[in-house]
Amino acid sequence: MLKTDSHHARKVLLHVLIVLIGAFIALLIGGMAGMALGGQNPLKFFDPATWQHVFSFWQ
Predict the structure, then answer these.
(1) 45, 31 Cβ separation under 8 angstroms
(2) For residue 8, how many C-alpha atoms fall within 13 Å in the half-sphere facing its CB?
(3) Membrane spanning segments where (predicted)?
């Protein structure tokens, strides 16, 4: 019985990891698409100055 529970827990953790990776990839693609739709270089999404500007709204 313990082996079955351990196997189930591993499957659940694997699915959670896949969802988190998918969400991270969607965030990257969405951010780059938003920059492109805004008329800017999509790679500017990775510029630290962009993130400083975003975080300045929270202060």
Answers:
(1) yes
(2) 5
(3) 12-37
